Amino acid sequence: MHLVGGHHQELHHQELHRHPEHYDVSSEEWSSADDQQAIHRKHYSQLPPIQSVYDEALVLPLFGARQWVSWTMLLFNLVMQGVVLVKITELVWTEMQYRDQTLWGGTGGACVWIKPGDALSLHLDHVLVAGKSGSDEGYLYCVPESLLIVDKFESIDLNGDGYWSAQESSAQTAAVEEETGRIMNLDYLMFSLVLKKNPAAQWGDLIAAPATQYNASISRATWESHRNYLQLCQALNPTICPNLEIRGILKKYLPEEHKARKRVAKCENILTYWCPTVIGEKFKQYGIYHADLCGVKETVWHKSVSLRSVRYSTEWKYMNRFDGITTVMYFGFLMVMLIIWWMVMLLEIRLLYAWWTTLWFFPVAENKEDCIETLEEDGENRKFKVLKLPARHRRITMLLNLLPRTILILCISVIGTFFLIEADDYQDLILNCVALTFLIDIDEMIYAGIISNNRKDLCEKTQPLTCEVPKGWSLLLPEQTPWTLVHAISVLVVVISFLLHSYFRAGGKLDRGEALQCLCQGSGRICVSAQIWGGELDVRAAINKLGY
Predict the structure, then answer these.
(1) What span, in angstroms and rounded, lies between the C-alpha atoms of 135 and 548?
(2) Which comes out higher in pLDDT, residue 153 or 2?
C-alpha cells in the first residue's frame, strides 16, 4: 500500500518555498506573496490510489453502480478477516492459558515460588540459605509439597518425641494446605511408609490407631532409611537418572552401588515403582506435568564414560545457552520480527488516520448530483474527480466501513503481537509473521481477484480523494515535526514494551525457562530440588566440567 497524506503535501509546499526559482511564480496562481503564503498555510489529507474493497465501497456508489455488490464484498472481507482473527485469538489464548495453568496455575500447577517467610520455606531452612545460589527473592519447587515437608524430620515430628504420627501428619497437612491452598498427600505418604515397615498392617487400623500407639507412626530411624529414596523421587521421571549420575547426585544417594550403570538402573527402578507406590496419585500427576510440559526426550551418548544424558525439547528451546528463548540472541531476533510487524501495522494505522481525516473534512453534498467531475472527455481516457460526498453516504461509510476496519486493525495489531511472542520457536515465529501479513492483505486480494474489470476500471480512473484540513490537525504537533523520527521511536517504544512485559512479568519467558529447567531436569540456580540434592546445579555444566 502507498499512503499519501497531509505530511507529503506540507513537504511539497516547503520545497516550493525554499526553491522558488524552480517554479513559474509569474503565473496567476503565484501572482502575489500573499497568495504564496496562503498556499503554504494549507494542509491536505489524501487517500491512496484505489486498490481494496474498502476504497471500492467508498467510490463506486457515487457513480450509481450497484451498491449491494460493494457492500457484499466489504462484508465478505470483514467476515474472512474476523474468522481468522477469532481463530488466532483462540489459539493464543488457549496456549497461554494451558501453559500458565499447567506450569503455574496457583493451587493446581506444577511449579510454585517459595518466598522468604512462606510456610514451606520454614521447612527448608536447612538447604535454602538466602543468597546461596544468587537468589534473594525466592526459589522454585516443581515437586509434590509432601516431598519438601518430609525432607526435614523436625518438620514432621511436631511434638519432638522422635516419632512421626498420623495425628502430626494430619495437623501438618491442614496447616500447609491452609497456608498454600494446595492439596497435600502427607497422610498417604506416611501410611505408605508404615506399610513398607509392616506389610500386615491395614489402612483402617492405621487411621483409627490411638495416639499412644506407634503402629501408626514412623520413627526417626525408619525415616532415615527412606530419606534418600524420598529425595530421589523429586526427579519425577526415571529418564533423567543418567543426568543425576553425571551431576554426581546418585553417588551421594545410592552409596551402596559402586558402578555408575547400577546406580542409574536402581534410580530408574525407584522412580518407576517405589515412588508412585509411596507417594501415590500426586506423584503420578507430576509425571503427567513432566510429560506434557517438557516435550520430546532427546538422548546423547557419551562414549568415553558409557553414559547417556537426556534433554527435553521444550526445556532445551528455553535454556539452550546459544540461541535459547531466554538468550539475548532470541530476544534480538524476536525484536526484529516485532519491528517488522509493527512497521506493517503502522502503515495500516497511518492509512486509517488518512481515511478518518479525509472523510471528516471532505466537502459534503445533500445528494449525488455534482459530486463527480469529469476531467477528460477523450473516450476511454476519461478521468474523474470526487468533489463532494453525499452526507448520508459519508455517515454510512464511517459507520459500516471505516469503524469496523479501525477496530479490526487495532485488534490485529495487539493479537498479532501476542501471536508472535507466544511462538517460542524460530521457524514458527517466521511463519506466523508471514501469516499475519497475509491476513491484513485479504481486502486487496478480494479486490484484485473477485471485483470485475469494469468496476476496477472505473475505480482506477477516479483520482484519490483529497481535501484541505485545518492547520494543526496533525495531532496538534508543530509543522516542523520530524515525522520519520516520531514513527521510528513509536515502533521501538511499542515493541520494547511488549518484549519487556513478555520476558520480565511474573510467569514470563524468563520465569518459564527457570520453571521448565526445574521441572524437567531438577536443575537451576533457584530450583529447590537442585539445592536439596547438592552436586552440580546444572547437567550441562557437569558435562562440560567432566569432559563428557
Answers:
(1) 29
(2) 153
Amino acid letter, residue 311: R
pLDDT digit string, tens, across residues 71-109: 899 999 999 999 999 999 998 988 888 888 888 877 778
pTM of the model: 0.81
Selection from 271, 239, 272, 266 nearest residue 250 by Cα: 266
Grid cell of 350 as nine digits: 497511518
The set of cell numbers assigned to 361 is 473534512
Q: Which residues contact 19 (CB under 8 A, 6 or more apart)?
A: none
Domain ranges of the chain: 6-102+326-504
pLDDT at 499: 95
Average pLDDT, the chain: 80
Strands (E) in 183-306, as ranges, are 217-219, 297-302
d(CA 233, CA 231): 5
C-alpha span between 407 and 356 (Å, rounded): 13
Q: Minimum mean pLDDT among 204-218, 384-398, 408-422: which range?
A: 204-218
Grid cell 500447609 is found at 176
Distance CA(507)–CA(528), nearest Å, equals 17
Q: How far apart are CA 505 and CA 353, in angstroms?
A: 33
pLDDT for 197 equals 65
